[in-house]
């Protein structure tokens, strides 16, 4: 083909769709016109179009992962009031939001505190940030997930159901303390914890700290074994502050009252025990 041979571009949209390049299919007329006008080399035009395709493909993937993550809306790091939870290091949380090494080795995050202290918001906010970094996250109430796993066990598919959860780099188990103390529910919970140990990360939010976990598991040995697996390579957030919802309600009804000072709490700890 020489320079004078006419080029049939009518089939190009069909070819690009066949190759699953929707961004190139949408943008090529504008960019080829610009390239002709400005005298771009062919390699530059091809590079620009493929970079745009890759960028938009990444954005579509993030949107899909955000939908499947089931994160509560609006609970982002930008919306989190770090000043109301002085036990949290903002710099530390932002470092965790980047993912990388702690997810690679299956480390866990554990947040303890009374209702309204921001545990679920923190977990969801980290979830949003990690999805934007390319990770996969699932946010779920602990009891809801355990009910699904119990159904899977009854249908002899528990191992397969837990294995399917491996696609999530981070599994957020919200309201962990509301698990019912019965053999069926706590046994599938223990199997989930054991299956993800040092492989995939968990973020657990709970009103009750470890000392009250005997109320969750049917026997002492299972309680100790579950805690041992969770805290090995873990970051623990102690969020023992006054309920944000309560403080907000008081501020609305009594605007002259100073409710900004939270109750002092224990600083967050990082646990990295030897097996």
TrEMBL record:
Region ranges (Disordered): 255-275
Keyword Secreted: no
Gene3D superfamilies membership: P-loop containing nucleotide triphosphate hydrolases
GO biological process terms held by the UniProt record: DNA replication
GO molecular function: ATP binding
Location of the AAA+ ATPase domain: 105-237
Keyword tags: ATP-binding, Nucleotide-binding
Sequence similarity: Belongs to the IS21/IS1162 putative ATP-binding protein family.
Keyword hit for Signal: no
PANTHER family with a match to the protein in the record: ATP-BINDING PROTEIN RV3427C IN INSERTION SEQUENCE-RELATED, CHROMOSOMAL REPLICATION INITIATOR PROTEIN DNAA
Pfam families: IstB_IS21
Identification of the protein by name: AAA+ ATPase domain-containing protein
């Amino acid at each position: 083909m020489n320079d004078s041979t006419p080029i049939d571009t009518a089939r190009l949209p069909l070819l690009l769709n066949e190759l699953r390049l929707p961004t190139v299919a949408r943008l090529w007329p504008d960019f080829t016109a610009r390239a002709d006008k400005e005298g771009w080399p062919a390699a530059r035009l091809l590079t620009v179009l493929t970079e745009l395709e890759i960028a938009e493909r990444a954005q579509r993937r993030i949107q899909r992962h955000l939908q499947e993550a089931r994160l509560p809306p609006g609970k982002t790091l930008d919306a989190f009031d770090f000043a109301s939870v002085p036990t949290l290091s903002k710099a530390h949380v932002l470092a965790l939001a980047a993912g990388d090494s702690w997810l690679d080795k299956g480390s866990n995050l554990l947040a303890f505190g009374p209702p309204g202290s921001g545990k679920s918001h923190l977990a969801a906010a980290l979830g949003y940030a990690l999805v934007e970094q390319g990770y996969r996250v699932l946010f779920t109430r602990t009891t809801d997930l355990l009910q699904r796993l119990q159904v899977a066990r009854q249908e002899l598919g528990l191992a397969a159901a837990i294995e399917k959860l491996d696609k999530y780099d981070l599994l957020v188990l919200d309201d962990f303390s509301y698990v019912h103390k019965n053999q069926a529910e706590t046994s599938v919970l223990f199997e989930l914890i054991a299956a993800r140990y040092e492989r995939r990360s968990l973020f657990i939010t709970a009103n009750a700290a470890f000392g009250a976990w005997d109320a969750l598991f049917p026997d002492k040995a299972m309680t100790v074994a579950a805690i041992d697996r969770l805290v090995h390579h873990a970051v623990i957030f102690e969020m023992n502050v006054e309920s944000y919802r309560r403080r907000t309600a008081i501020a609305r009804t009594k605007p002259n009252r100073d409710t900004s000072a939270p109750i002092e709490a224990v600083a967050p700890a990082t646990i990295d025990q030897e097996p």
